[in-house]
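Re: shikimate-3-phosphate structure - here you go.
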Amino acid sequence: MSQAPARSLQIESSARLSGRVTVPGDKSISHRSLMLSSLAVGESRIEGLLEGEDVLATAAAMRAMGATIERSEDGIWRVWGVGVGGLLQPAGALDMGNSGTSTRLLAGLVASHAITATFVGDASLSKRPMGRVIDPLSLMGAEFTSSPGGRLPMMVRGLCPAVPIEYTLPVASAQVKSAVLLAGLNTPGITRVIEPVPTRDHSERMLAGFGANLTVEASNRGRVISIHGEAELQPQQIVVPGDPSSAAFWAVAASIVPGSEVTIANVGLNPTRAGIFTALRMMGADITEVDPRTVGGEPVADLIVRHAALKAIDVPPDLAPSMIDEYPVLFVAAALAEGRTVARGAHELRVKESDRIAAMKDALQACGVTVEEFDDGLAITGSGGEPIPGGGTVASLLDHRIAMAMTVAGLVARRPITIDDVAPVATSYPVFFETLEQLAGRA
Ligand code: S3P
């Protein structure tokens, strides 16, 4: 996947946002639905799949390892899997583009198959640490050759049969948890992951939904997840709920643009993902949940968000795992709040698609916001609801969430904010700017 040419964009301030929007399918669930469908024998159908570049990288990789994956004109994806243990040797390198989730989860799948795969990615992904999956998967018997510092390009030589392990996560990472559980699918015996701090549980829910023998227990060491290997997965009909991480941009935009009222339909509200809505409510956001229901085994509701006067908070560090991808846009909410918001305990932000602590500090400062940087977070002095000065040029650093968060900031800035490259938005939210035009009444 070649890197898209840079596309700079100037964001003007906006009048009230109003209307009803549907956010694209959840990125985490979309990746997992393609992977597990590719390992079931028979035809699975996926409705609402996120058709962003990251998920398309996963689809291409699963095809390269033998699955048949097609999109029908009605938008339903059909997958014919090869069975657990049936992945084939890919002919060429697997291009992961910008996607850490694809890379780490697929490394787990390859680790317990008798195949070798080489993973490559864009400049952002090539800087991100893979040691966190190399360590446990090596214990299971896979062999890795990576670039210095445990980076891409990385070659994984799987072992079949692999060795089951019990692994306590040293970092709160759903990707690492999922990599080990996916490796455990084709490993004889019981593979166990202990997570001292709960992270998103989509893998556990979906593995159980596909018929894997998986148990989750609470213990004094944390959540203990056990998977019985050499599983047989049954094909499924999957409906992917809307992505709360994408909904978060509209929740913040509606909260900070005066006069706004936006309905965001079909938002996944899995408690391991919904921390941003808790934090925004603590700040005084006006968010109403309507029609709570279950979609694809996940809690979902429509959200009505109205403009509100936000106040600064100390963001509870224990919310971090359930809103880890939402800090950039939370920082924008903080820039419009009354008082000084302090968000700490989020060191993991340093190793996302960009160093999101440094990226957001630089971006907000360039727009005239007072920001203090810590090793594990930021303190932001808000404007009390007045527009921020704006006028700056912001580097998105191949990070979709920096580009989208600073677009939201641009809606309430005195002078336009220029974003040097908004092309990365296509990794997770290809129609983001069309939806913005619709909400601003310009579509
Ligand atoms: C993800 C887990 C999180 C998150 C990422 C998606 C997943 O990463 O930031 O966007 O789908 O498992 P970590 O596992 O690195 O926390």
